[in-house]
Amino acid sequence: MIVLSITTSAASGGVALVQNDTVLAEIAHVDPRGHAEHLFDLIDRAFTKANVTRGDVQLIAVDIGPGSFTGARIGVAAAKGIALGLGVHMIGVVSLAAMAARLRSEFPSQPFFAAAIDARKNELYLSIEDQEGAVRTPPCHIAYTSIAEHITPVIGNTSCVSIVDTAEHRAFAAPFASTALVEPPSPSWIAKLGAAQFLSLNNADRAALDPGNVVPLYVRPPDAVPLPAFAP
After folding, report:
1. Which of 114, 134, 170, 181 could be cross-linked to 163 through a Cys-Cys bond (beta carbons 3.0 to 4.6 Å apart)?
2. Three-state SS across 64-106?
3. Which domains does the chain have, with CATH numbers?
4. Tell me: the pLDDT tens digits for 165-183?
5. Radius of gyration, CA atoms only, the chain
6. Is the pTM for the entire model greater than 0.70?
7. Are the CB atoms for 69 and 99 separated by under 8 Å?
């Protein structure tokens, strides 16, 4: 199965084409304000590099966040258009889950994995998973100064491997982390996790997948809200 993946929830966005865990192409772009302008060019370049056509794609996997509100909306909207245009299934993948899945593959002996994304305002989006992929702390937004209060009850006296998208917060899990990575959500891991989630569904659930049901995962309420309507 060939999967086209899109991630635009962090400053570094990108796309990938993955076939049965083999990365055919992966192209990144670092410009949080330029995702909309560059996304379809990245997709075209990925198809050229992978030497496959749009007709070969069987699944669209998209990063639904948490992360940038605008970025997540851009990625989800683009993925919906592509999925509907190609007539293929689409599945949403949580950014933090994809980051944790990558850690599990690279550090299989570690018991816990803490994934985080910069949420601005001295906050992080955080999720903690264990070696089996069970979510111990669902995606949440917390103050940077409160990290220890969330990690300690989960991992106890053990350690974790951490990953965050910005170097500024590399030490967010210290002193709990034995290893700390600075990497944004990976397009290839969005594809791999999306494929795994899709293949885990039975035929009826796969058939029920609807791009219209895939929505961004914001976690935190947006700062900008519509003004109340006033009667004339």
Report:
1. 181
2. EECCCHHHHHHHHHHHHHHHHHHCCEEEEEEHHHHHHHHHHHH
3. 2-94+185-213 (3.30.420.40), 96-182 (3.30.420.40)
4. 999 999 999 999 999 999 9
5. 18
6. yes
7. no
